[in-house]
Amino acid sequence: MCGIVGFIGKAPEKVLLEGLKRLEYRGYDSAGIALKFSDRMDLFKAKGEIKNLEKIVPNETTARIGIGHTRWATHGKPDETNAHPHVSSDKKWAVVHNGIIENYIELKTKLNDFGYDFYSETDTETIAKLIEYFYKDDCNVISVLNKTISSLKGSYALGIINKEQDGIYFAKNKSPLYVAKCGNEVMLASDIICFKGFAEEYYPISDGVFGYATENGIEFYDNLSKIDVAPIPLNLGDYSNLNTYKHFMLKEIFETKTAIKNIIEYYSEKNNINKFDGRDISKINRVKFIGCGTAYHACLLGADMLRKKAGLDAEAYVASEFRYQDVCVDDKTMVVLVSQSGETADTLAAFELAKENGAFTVAIVNVEYSTLAKNADIYFPIKAGVEIAVASTKAFSAQLSVLNIFAGLVGERLGKNSDPLYDVRKLFECFDYGNINDFKLLADVLRYNDSLFMIGRGDDYYIAQEASLKIKETSYINSNTYYAGELKHGFLALIDDATYVIVFATDKNVFTKTVCNAEEAKARGAKIILFTCFDLSEADAENFYYIIKVKELGNSLQSVLNIVPWQIIAYYTSINKGINPDKPRNLAKSVTVE
Ligand code: M6R
Question: Measured between alpha carbons, how far is residue 497 from residues 304, 492, 500, 517, 542 in Å?
Fold first, then answer.
């Protein structure tokens, strides 16, 4: 979370603001920039989105260097005082930081003893003061930086400037950071999307590496030794813009079909689908799927697909729990990490644990230059294109499609006779976005609810979980999910005649049972909304307050047809409530802290 950007060159105020806008997906609680002039350093900070900062930053300045930050608060409330950049007591050093310094209280206490006072509640201010403290006795900044980062425990991507020096210092550990140059201009950023239009190549920074950039070039250090870093060509697709849409969330939902098409095209290439070539997976006896939020819901469905298509023992885990459970991972385990961004801290931590235990790791990612994509044994791109809205939509459908291909490939390797692309092709042929007017009508009803219940069995239950997450994060409605059969074991106590219960029933094997569970809620006064792919007789239909019908696909990618309507319903419920669905309160797109 949090995005940092730094720039050396002409009009840093403009470049920093533009960079911060591109990084706003990483947090939008507050933002700030520091601009270095020949004789001074000016700070600008504002609460909320970058547009608030934009109002107070002067249009044209003579500054040549600056650093900027967009924040997702971890330590201290989101206000101007806690907004970055943070400065040293002598106001000579300014620091922007993404990550968490786990030992900041210990460091702060020591610095307090040395006479340093703190004005903010952040861990970052400690870094500014630590640099100042070391710099007092050692004017070699590289050595000072080495001492500083050696004192830090936790994660950081840092951009640092000094009011009397013409460059930007930087350091990285477990938070993304990249640097690029063009002529004698240099840019530092949390995401390479900031380099689009600026440079043709960029330098990745490894964990533990720090350095110094000036108009004359970039130096990288590991401990105190200078190291060479090879540039990588900047290969980004089109940077997403809204076109005629009002919000990225809606635009991205309507990019689902293109994503499925991209997946079919990409995986139809022999070189792209033969991911397991040269790999012996015959000894694998269990598979663990790991992710967070929406990606975790994809894992639940992915594990189910693998059990069905490959007959392997497969389980899904929430990444933040996986690390602290007795998870039985060894060299016969395949660990599949699902992440849109490939930078989610909990997922990366689970990945490291899996590697330490000798597992074979597979990443299912959207961002192909991400840490996860780079470090997993193999990775399957989901080809969804840039996803900007905080609520993940097209990426979820793309994850399911690729997980289905992955499950088919593993099955094929283990001797099951299947065409890994069959289900996805069928999905593409059958795919549509459903009856938007029906969805809008339901969104009109849901806007007045403070809470909701969603029930289902099997895959329907997993989709209810994802639908519920979409409703929660974009509409702030307390939407709860239960296994349909569990209602009677306690949850019925919550039902009264103001309750809406949404019943997900798209699996014919359990349709009748699920609907019977809904009847139990109806008998207690609940209004039942049926979500199904089956036709109902007129008499049966009368039992329901509202029915949403989707197409029947007949394979496990039915889940894609099932989730898209709920993404649309969540979008319109959010709009009805006057919420910006692209930037829900308290959230960020990429969660790079544990
Ligand atoms: O980038 P990732 O897929 O690893 O992100 C995981 C979750 O943070 C993410 O899916 C989150 O739950 C979304 N806001 C859901 O819409």
Answer: 35, 12, 8, 16, 17
Q: Active site residue: 2, 194, 299, 533, which one? A: 2
Band of pLDDT at residue 239, cut at 50, 70 and 90? low
Q: Is the CB of 70 inside a 6 Å radius of any atom of ligand 1?
A: no
Among residues 129, 163, 309, 589, the one annotated as catalytic is: 589
Statement to judge: residues 424 and 381 lie in one domain: yes
Q: Is pLDDT at 75 greater than 90 in this prediction?
A: no
The DSSP letter of residue 100 is -
Same domain membership, residue 523 and residue 388:
no
Joined tokens for residue 147: 């001492």
Q: Is the CB of 294 under 6 A from ligand 1?
A: yes
* Joined tokens for residue 536: 């109902």
Give the integer Cα–Cα distance in Å for 474 and 354.
33
Cα separation, 172 vs 156, whole angstroms: 6
Read off the pTM.
Answer: 0.90
User: In this structure, what DSSP letter does residue 239 have?
Assistant: P
Instruction: Domain of residue 38: give its range.
Output: 3-233
Q: Tell me the per-residue pLDDT of 88-131, one tens digit each, with 9 for 90 and over.
A: 999 999 999 999 999 999 999 999 999 999 999 999 999 999 99
325-383 pLDDT, tens digit per residue, is: 877 899 999 999 999 999 999 999 999 999 999 999 999 999 999 999 999 999 999 99
Question: 174: which DSSP letter?
Answer: B
Instruction: Give pLDDT tens digits for 226-237.
Output: 999 999 999 876
Instruction: Report the distance separating Cα 532 and Cα 555, nearest Å.
Output: 15
Which residue minimizes the CA distance to atom 11 of ligand 1?
293
Cis peptide before 85 (omega within 30 of 0): yes
- Report yes or no on 593 lying in a domain: no
Q: How far is the CA of 207 from the centre of ligand 1 (A)?
A: 23
What CATH number is given to the structural domain containing 486?
3.40.50.10490
Residue type at 522? Answer: K
Does residue 227 sit in the same domain as residue 259? no
Residues 265, 213 share a domain:
no
Q: What distance lies between CA 592 and its chain's CA centroid?
A: 8
Cα separation, 476 vs 581, in Å, equals: 10
Active site residue 430: no
CA–CA gap between residue 542 and residue 540 (Å, rounded): 5
Tokens of 445: 């009803």
Q: Average pLDDT of 36-45?
A: 96
Statement to judge: residues 464 and 373 lie in one domain: no
The full length of the chain comes to 594
